[in-house]
Amino acid sequence: MKDLIVNLCPHGLLQWLRIQRSKRWIDRARSLHTERYQRINDESIINAQNSNHIRGDDWHATTQFLADLGLPKDQIIEGSISETSLKFISTVLRQTLNNNLPLLGLHIGNFVGVSLAHITASAVQIHPDSLVIAIDPNLTHRGIKNPQNYVLQLLQACDLSNKVLPLAAYSGEKSISNDGFVFGNYDPTTHFQLEAASSNAIQNLTKLFTSKCDFVLMDGNHQADYLVKEIHNVKPLLKPGGLVILDDINMVWEEIRSIFLNISSLGLAPLADDGRVGIAIASDKAQ
């Protein structure tokens, strides 16, 4: 039928029909672009976002923000560094690293971002150009799927998105998630083959730079041998006088506590602790 119409219609008429069809497509495209520009330039959307910022170092505000997103508050709190310990870390950062220069930090183990937001906010208070590299494989943790999505939403709410460089990767080799614990119906051993992320992020960072990090917070894999390897791998990234911060050095995690109590054997000097968080410092010899 189409061939018949083509053969019967004069050439000029066919050209006119093609032109009209082309004009309709152009008009439709222009209309779509007009709508697109209106959405992009809708300042009310941007202004609404900018007016709802919370403080990254306000533990109650950040945990409540995440709860309002539908996350179970008990898991948020149990899986994050406590408010008291985060304030302790921030105090040590200010006392030790406040040299009027931008800080470069490394944060290992993000979960849903409470400690990341707090530490980043503290670093930015020391210098507004500070940056934190955040490493986490973004695996289901404590029953929460795709936790990095909540990390990024929290950073946006805290106006810290441009102060954090997230890396969805294992800090070292691929390992069993959730420290081997079963949360709900999520057994990390049966899901191991399905869990996927880049690996050896710390060692790969040393190919980009060395002796640049002012601090490293380590709250990822809690296996003793894994943590020891992490510490060895982060040392080349640290500046002389850089800080290594370990979470869970209390009696609940004996292997982590033992590592901190013997941190000098790893080339670091113990600096301070609050019973849960331990902080060590790198020296020239440690590098």
Helix and strand arrangement:
Layout: H1 2-8, H2 11-40, H3 43-50, H4 59-68, H5 73-78, H6 83-97, E1 104-108, H7 114-126, E2 131-136, H8 147-157, E3 164-168, H9 188-191, H10 201-205, E4 213-218, H11 224-234, E5 238-246, H12 254-261, E6 268-273, E7 278-282
Parallel strand pairs: 1-2, 1-4, 2-3, 4-5
Antiparallel strand pairs: 5-7, 6-7
* CATH secondary-structure class of the largest domain: Alpha Beta
Which structural class do the helices and strands define?
alpha/beta
Characterize the main sheet: 7 strands, mixed
Overall pLDDT: 91
CATH architecture of the largest domain, by name, is 3-Layer(aba) Sandwich
Output the helix-strand order.
HHHHHHEHEHEHHEHEHEE
Number of domains: 2
Pfam families: Methyltransf_24
Keywords: Methyltransferase, Transferase
Protein name: Methyltransferase domain-containing protein
GO molecular function, one term: methyltransferase activity
Walk me through the structure.
This protein has 287 residues and is an alpha/beta fold. The protein folds into two domains: 2-41; 54-282, Vaccinia Virus protein VP39 (Rossmann fold). Helix content is 45%, strand content 15%. The chain has helices spanning 2-8, 11-40, 43-50, 59-68, 73-78, 83-97, 114-126, 147-157, 188-191, 201-205, 224-234, 254-261; strands spanning 104-108, 131-136, 164-168, 213-218, 238-246, 268-273, 278-282. Strands 3-2-1-4-5-7-6 form a seven-stranded mixed sheet, sandwiched between helices. It is elongated. The N and C termini lie far apart (81 Å). The model has no long low-confidence stretch (mean pLDDT 91).
